[in-house]
Amino acid sequence: MTGSAPTKRLFIKTYGCQMNVYDSERMADVLAPLGYGVTSTPEDADLVVLNTCHIREKATEKVYSELGQIKLMKQARAQAGGKMTIAVAGCVAQAEGEQIMLRQPAVDLVVGPQAYHQLPELIARAHRARGERLAADFAADEKFDALPVARNPDGVTAFLTVQEGCDKFCTFCVVPYTRGGEWSRPVETILAEARDLAAKGVREVTLLGQNVNAYAGEGGLAGLARQLAQIEGLDRIRYTTSHPADMDDALIEAHAELPQLMPYLHLPVQAGSDKILKAMNRAHTAESYLRLVEKIRAARPDIAMSGDFIVGFPGERDADFEATLSLVREVGYAASFTFKYSRRPGTPAAALPGQVEEAVKDERLARLNALIDEQQRAFNAAQVGKVLPVLFEKPGRHPGQLSGRSPYLQAVHVEGPERLIGQIVPVRIETAHKMSLAGVLEMESA
Ligand code: 5AD
Ligand code: SF4
Who lines ligand 2 at CB under 6 A? Predict the structure, then answer.
């Protein structure tokens, strides 16, 4: 199905009805993109699935006795330095649930008939639970997986990692498999590092995490921001990347109350069609995202929104893509990152029907980019005539020029003395470009 040869062996034992026979085939289909090819013997399988049936009396007992046999095979594999994962599916799984794992601890996962599409996620979670990383299965892809690199080391801005990993399992994404589960650094460690950065002259920190607003240290991300805001000299706090599902009221409130929390929020939505969002396993609808943005803007009316978008996800029709454009029009983004859907072997979406032709993706990407560019230009143009506090970071490209950032993360260029680097200074914005602003120091123009 993926075009690549299987690297792992899958043994499925099917009990009962024709429905189960059909489901077993579906499971094999869902698992093929993860590199599983079907084998006829359980002994050498990397993954054993018992697709159970509940209809006959004593069926459950039969399953447990079968599991006892497979457990011995799992032990033999382990002794030989290998690994076997055991899954129980079907009606017994439905009826008994997690009970099965209590009674037979060799079982790694239990999956009911409604959840076979989640098998890749469940297997990844089971592997994580026993401390395995799955990175070897995936080719690294910097474009989708890399965190931003420091803009200017030893400078006035710094990145600070507070969280890693992801539990969201968007069906297109490799991160939950390659980076593992969500994990947060303790508050104290982060505060100590931030104090140290501030002492070295850092004025702005960007808190980093694949799912930064899922930060689970005490007080969550809002609490962390409040504590960071108390550090002398640390005048600006940013964070990226956030998931809509973790954008809680405390964090929104912090945006209303903390002047240090910069009015710029990267909040990927990925698509505007509910059908596609569901297939992406995004856990939000277009409507719930729009309501969330509304709530954030009620707390901080000037906030600049930015997003990530994928065009050409499997099954995306013209009408779905139009829904993305209309969501973009409704939100009005200050900046965005746009991607053509790229099929990543091992992710559930790679196995979905309705893969979109490259030419269609190109055309949609061009239309989306045109709209995003227009919004970005409009957002920049709206700053002309305003006075913005600019944190100067470094000399500009031309002699006598300084380069800094507005609260909205726009690059700002002015003529000015180098001693202003590291300071936050009012700048009167005179011209706007697609990617940057130019202006004059307010004190000199007055
Ligand atoms: N294809 C296209 N875009 C992807 N992204 C992640 N995985 C894929 C993929 N397989 C994009 C998402 C995510 C951003 C970091 O990369 O938009 O938010
Ligand atoms: Fe990937 Fe982000 Fe989705 Fe996590 S939330 S699975 S990192 S796209």
Answer: 166, 168-170, 173, 175-176, 210-211, 243
Interval 180-203: pLDDT, tens: 789 899 999 999 999 999 999 999
Distance CA 212, CA 175 (A): 14
Domain of residue 124 covers: 8-140
Residue 91 assigned ligand-binding role: yes
118 ligand 1 Cβ < 6 A: no
Residues 238 and 278 in one domain: no
| CATH number of the domain within which 71 lies | 3.40.50.12160
Any ligand 1 atom below 6 A from CB of 173: yes
Instruction: Report pLDDT digits (tens) over 5-16.
Output: 788 999 999 988
Do 325 and 395 belong together in one domain? no
For 71-117, the pLDDT digits (tens) are: 999 999 999 988 999 999 998 898 888 899 999 999 999 998 888 88
The answer to the question of whether 166 is labelled as a binding residue is yes
237 lies in the same domain as 292 = no
How many structural domains are present in the chain?
Answer: 4
Distance 339 CA to ligand 2 centre (A): 14
The answer, as to whether pTM is greater than 0.85, is: no
Q: Is residue 245 part of a domain?
A: yes
